[in-house]
Amino acid sequence: MAFGVGEAVAAGLKVLDKFIPDPAARAKAEAELRDALMASDAAQLEVNKAEAASGSVFVGGWRPAIGWVCAAAVAYTYLLVPIGMWLAFIIGKPLAKPPVLDSNLWELMFAMLGLGGLRTYEKLKGVAAK
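^ thats the sequence. predicted structure below, dont judge the formating
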């Protein structure tokens, strides 16, 4: 099972334990919950495959594009602006600080790194697609 499905099932089972005291009915509800979650996983996998197979950059390339935009924003905010201002000061022509991106950049970056962490988790657990 992919990362997250097992945890979702476990959370759902806690709810089922409280509301469905009959073991047979609970087992049936558990099976239905697992099937629904796995079907959802399979549907998303098919969408991902279709996007990746597309030759269009606008369909298959949106995830890498977000990564490159985030990397460029980080480079601009934390490398280009400070180094540019320092160099301008060194050569005797100080500049006013150019606009930089706000803290929302960090939220985007941590979200993207979290997605990379989930992929690593999948590989370590042996559930990554071959």
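The helical segments are 5-19, 23-53, 57-60, 62-90, 104-125.
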